[in-house]
Amino acid sequence: MKAIKKLLLLFLPLIIIMMMFLMFLGGGVRDGNETPKNNLSSSVEYYRPYVSKIAKLEGMEDYVDLILAVMQVESGGTGSDPMQASEGPFNKKYPQIPNGIKDPHYSIRCGIKELQDCLKRAKVKDASDEGRIRVALGGYNFGNGFIEWIDREKGGRWTLEAAQEFSDIMKGKTGWSVYGDPPYADKVMSYYDALDFISGDGILIPPLKGYTLTSGYGNRPSIGDFHYGVDLDGSYGASIYAPGDAKVYQASSSCPADGGYLGNMCPDGAYAGAGNFIQLKMKYKGKELYILLCHMKDVDVKTGQSIKKGQRIGSQGHSGNSTASHVHMEMHFSTPVIATTEGSVDPEKYIKFK
C-alpha cells in the first residue's frame, strides 16, 4: 500500500501535465463573439412530422425549423409540455402554471400559436428576417411587452445587452430575482442557424437571403472616396452564406461584434478596419478569385477550411470601420490585398443581386 502511494506521488505531476496538454489540444479557445452551432436532439426531431403538420395548418410551414429550435431550448423535446406553453395565452385547457400542460401535442399547438403571435407582433417579414426573429423570440421568452419596449427604446434592434437591460428592469418592477433568460434568442438561433443553408443559380450567389444593397462599387462623389466593393444590409445578426465553393483564405473574429465606428481600425494589420471578417479563395473560370466579407458579428469557419456554396459561414454585425450594421463585400482577382484597385472588380458584374 505504501509502495502504491509513493508511486502515485511520483507520477502525479506527470499525469497532471499530460491531462492539461490533452485539454489544450482538444478544447481550444473560443472567441467571445462566436456563437456555437448545435444540432437538434433526437427527442426534438421525433416531433418534426407533427410540428410540420400543425405548422402547415397555421400558415407557419416556413418556420418549422424555428419551432423545433424553440422546443430544443425550452425542453430538449422531453416532458409533457415540450414548448413550455403552459403559462402562455393560448393554453385554455390546463392550469397556467409551469409544466401545467399534460399533453405534448397540445403543448406544440399552443406553442406554435404563441410563436406565430410573437412573429406577427414583431413584424417579421419571412423566415430569413433574423434580426426581427430575435425580437420575436424575446417576446416568446419575456412576454410581448419586450417587443413593444425594444421597438420604443432600442429602435427595434435585439442585442444581448438590450435583453439584459429589459430583464433587469422587470426584476426591479416585480421584485423577482430572475426574469426571463436574456441570451434566449441567441440560444434558439444557435440551433436554427445550424440548419441554415441556401441555394441559387449561377456560379456565385448573394451572401444574404433578404437584404438591401445600400452602396455600390466605385466612386462615391458625395463622400469623396472610392468604394472597393458593395454594401449589403440584411439586418444585424442575419446569416451570411458562402457565395460559392471555396477555401477560407483568412478568418478573424477578434473585434467587438457591435463596436463599429468611423475610424475603427480593428483588427490591426493588412485587414485593418474590416472588423470580424472572412476572406474566401476560389477558382472562377480558371482564375483565382478572392472574396472579402467584413464587419461581421460572428464567424463560423476557420482559416484553411473548405466550404460549400450556400453554407452558413457567419452573421452580419457592426464591427470595425463601420457606421452602421452591414456586410461589405469586396472581390479581387489574383490578389488577396484589399482596399486597392489591383485586381478589383464590381461584385454586381458577377453576382445577380435583387
Automatic annotation (TrEMBL):
Membrane-spanning ranges: 7-29
Signal peptide bounds: none
EC number in record: 3.4.24.-
Domain spans labelled M23ase beta-sheet core: 226-333
Keywords: Hydrolase, Membrane, Transmembrane, Transmembrane helix
Superkingdom, taxonomy of origin: Bacteria
InterPro entries: Cell_wall_metabolism_enzyme (IPR050570), CwlT-like_lysozyme (IPR047194), Dup_hybrid_motif (IPR011055), Lysozyme-like_dom_sf (IPR023346), M23ase_b-sheet_dom (IPR016047)
GO molecular function terms listed in the Swiss-Prot or TrEMBL record: metalloendopeptidase activity
Segments forming domain CwlT-like lysozyme: 43-170
Major enzyme class: hydrolase
One Pfam short name: Peptidase_M23
Protein name: Murein DD-endopeptidase MepM
Naturally occurring in which organism (per UniProt): Clostridium innocuum
